[in-house]
Amino acid sequence: MEKVKRILVLTGGGDCPGLNAVIRGIAKRARKEKNWEVYGSIEAFNGVLNEPQEIIRLTSSRTKGIHVKGGTILKTTNKANPVKFPIYHPDGTTTFTDRSDELVKKLKALKFDAVINIGGDGSQKISKALFDKGIPIIGVPKTIDNDLSATDVTFGFQTAVQIATDSFDKLVTTAESHHRVMIMEVMGRDAGWIALHTAIAGGAEICLIPEIPYDIHKLVKRLELRYKKGKGFANIVIAEGAMPKKGTITSSAGDKGSEHVRLGGVAYQLSKQLKDAGCKAEIRETVLGHVQRGGTPVAFDRVLATLFGVKAFELIKEKKFGRMVAFQNNEITSVPLEDATRECSFVKKDSYLVQAAKGLSISFGD
Ligand code: F6P
Hints:
By secondary structure, the chain is of the alpha/beta class. It folds into two domains: about 5-155 and about 295-340, Rossmann fold (3-Layer(aba) Sandwich), CATH 3.40.50; about 160-295, Rossmann fold (3-Layer(aba) Sandwich). The protein contains twelve helices and 13 strands. The protein has helices at about 20-30, 45-50, 60-65, 100-110, 120-130, 155-180, 195-200, 215-225, 265-275, 300-315, 335-340, 350-360; strands at about 5-10, 35-40, 55, 85-90, 95, 115-120, 135-140, 180-185, 205-210, 235-240, 285, 325-330, 330-335. Strands 3-2-1-6-7-12-13 form a seven-stranded mixed beta sheet, sandwiched between helices. The protein has a four-stranded parallel beta sheet with strand order 9-10-8-11, with helices on both faces. A two-stranded antiparallel sheet has the order 4-5. Strand 4 and strand 5 (about 95) form a beta hairpin. Helix 1 packs across helix 10 (about 300-315) and helix 6 (about 155-180) crosses helix 7 (about 195-200). The termini are far apart. The model has no long low-confidence stretch (mean pLDDT about 95). 6-O-phosphono-beta-D-fructofuranose binds next to loops.
């Protein structure tokens, strides 16, 4: 009898439509082989670090049909980086400690033959750190922001753009009825991919993204063009990380234990800046927030996520550890983990996408 081999799967960082499709892809592909068992760690690596441990077997009854479901059946957190683990003190302060050696020891004691870490930039940095400490690990990229440079696209992005575009379309009709300016804020901490795609898909007048700081006076001028004799309407898409050329946007402090500053609310700040700069039109603001991360993934994301899961298993079978699954030039492939997180994928000002948007009279305020 061949020895049974065991894989541990986990999801880390913010959730994203398609995570369950990856989990199912791994489990289904592994089930095709006789001697593989797939397990899941609950809430990223907390399932391994916590006592008692929370590790479940990913049986067919647990993974059946989950590809259509949003969220992650394994739960997730962005406050459990084993390399920088938060410790909450009674006086309300938080300090961080490195628990990676403890994690490696526990993973080795559990005798897993391989680990699959599904997560974004931060999670893949953790994958690299664990690989360097001898853990046979594979990364699967995830982010609705689509800002990982090692893969042309990540699952969850198309779903987020679809949700944003559907919402944008609704805001257009109400903007038109009331002669208003509608500002819709979408996610995009460092990169404006969701905003840019939504602006083109929806037909926005203005698109503001982190990569192109805006001049508020140029925006007011662009809006004036839309209002003849006081009548008209306009729709703006702004990414949560967008910035004016002059002045700043204030963001709230991060959640306890999170390494990130919490964004959200630039739509309201932009609204005030427009008024202060002389915009006469009535303005309303919509912050889409986590709606973009919820619900069922669109077909494209289901396919991509499922293929990523299948590929992750195949890399393990071939013992090609220390790699992250990727989608490049229309092919499912993989890259070394050190290349996976080297740089962020930003929207380039001189890219065809931006130039085409400008050709459609979408203003970036630059
Ligand atoms: O990184 C993905 C992302 O969607 C960012 O665009 C956003 O700033 C962040 O997640 C919000 O995450 P959370 O509210 O879950 O901390």
